[in-house]
């Protein structure tokens, strides 16, 4: 079973709101996710991957990058190891977003949302992957202290 390495950015803005994507994909149920993606061979480190992914997906620069947890997501096609980092949003310019997810309409829409740190509201979302949703619902109110 292959292991796929990924990073995820638990991103807080200046008002301590969580920055997420509301994902609409043709033919799929609405779901939510946070920025992140696969580690590429040219990435120098996991943190480099994180900075690359938030720039690609949000046109964002982040600071206070803090390791939070590592999730093992077991799927039929293999194990996806998700390195989850907390960080602070420094700037965001959606015009800088780039990548295949924005070039292909079949991949749906990535609507950037900012949500309060409310465990009940977060638990009500279809957050993907579900392991991340469970982690966030359990720790969301502590994120400002964990990230700094």
UniProtKB/TrEMBL annotation:
<feature type="domain" description="Nudix hydrolase">
    <location>
        <begin position="2"/>
        <end position="141"/>
    </location>
</feature>
<comment type="similarity">
    <text>Belongs to the Nudix hydrolase family.</text>
</comment>
<dbReference type="InterPro" id="IPR015797">
    <property type="entry name" value="NUDIX_hydrolase-like_dom_sf"/>
</dbReference>
<dbReference type="InterPro" id="IPR000086">
    <property type="entry name" value="NUDIX_hydrolase_dom"/>
</dbReference>
<dbReference type="Pfam" id="PF00293">
    <property type="entry name" value="NUDIX"/>
</dbReference>
<protein>
    <recommendedName>
        <fullName>Nudix hydrolase domain-containing protein</fullName>
    </recommendedName>
</protein>
């Amino acid at each position: 079973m292959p292991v796929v390495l990924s990073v995820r950015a638990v991103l807080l803005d200046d008002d301590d709101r969580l920055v997420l994507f509301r994902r609409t994909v043709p033919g799929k149920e609405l779901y939510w996710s946070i920025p992140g993606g696969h580690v590429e061979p040219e990435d120098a480190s996991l943190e480099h991957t994180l900075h690359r992914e938030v720039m690609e997906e949000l046109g964002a620069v982040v600071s206070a990058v803090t390791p939070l947890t590592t999730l093992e997501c077991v799927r039929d096609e293999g194990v996806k190891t998700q390195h989850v980092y907390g960080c602070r949003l420094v700037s965001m310019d959606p015009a800088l977003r780039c990548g295949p997810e924005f070039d292909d309409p079949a991949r749906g829409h990535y609507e950037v949302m900012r949500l309060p740190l409310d465990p009940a509201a977060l638990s009500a979302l279809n957050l993907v992957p579900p392991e991340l949703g469970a982690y966030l619902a359990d720790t969301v109110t502590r994120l400002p202290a964990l990230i700094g």
